From TrEMBL:
Residues of the Lipocalin-like domain: 35-109
Organism: Flavobacterium paronense
Keywords carried by this UniProt record: Signal
Signal peptide extent: 1-21
The keyword Membrane appears for this protein: no
Domain of life: Bacteria
Keyword Signal in record: yes
Protein name per UniProt: Lipocalin family protein
Length: 157
């Protein structure tokens, strides 16, 4: 009897300590379907943007993402992003993505790799979602203070 109680207590402790990471939560299908389609980043804003440079998604300067095009396919969580700014190096890559129930946008940049082999990605907040626009918000550390980088998306026709 004591063994059963001990095993039960250990099971409860193990299950209660389970990680609640962004990738282990349920999907927000409604938000995902609303983002389905072709989009363009029309602005990237953050405090001090005239003074500091931010490298977005470990790819390029954040200002290079203005004008970039993104394709989101909601039924298989795949897509593509393309940097097209004439001031920056052109770049295109497949992506995989989803939105979880906590309103977090989880993104993996595949860059000629399979999604299963990529162990890292990006978790951003989704805000102000409408039929024709939404924002992704990244948190960065600037001099020990968390700062929001806001990517404003607008739907392409």
């Amino acid at each position: 009897m004591k063994k059963i109680i001990l095993i039960s207590l250990l099971s409860v402790l193990i299950l209660s300590c389970k990680s609640n990471s962004a990738t282990s939560t349920k999907l927000d299908s409604k938000s995902q379907v609303a983002i389905k389609g072709n989009w363009q980043i029309v602005s990237v804003n953050y405090p001090g943007s005239d003074v500091i440079k931010v490298t977005s998604f470990d790819l390029a300067d954040s200002k290079c993402f203005i004008g970039s095009t993104w394709k989101f396919i909601s039924n298989n969580n795949k897509g593509n992003l393309a940097l097209t700014s004439p001031k920056c190096t052109a770049y295109s890559t497949p992506i995989t993505w989803f939105i979880n129930k906590e309103g977090q946008f989880v993104l993996k940049i595949l860059d000629e790799s399979k999604a299963k082999t990529i162990k890292s990605g990006y978790v951003l907040g989704v805000a102000n979602q409408t039929e024709n626009s939404f924002q992704l918000i990244d948190k960065i550390n600037v001099a020990g203070k968390l700062t929001d980088v806001v990517y404003q998306f607008e739907r392409l026709n």
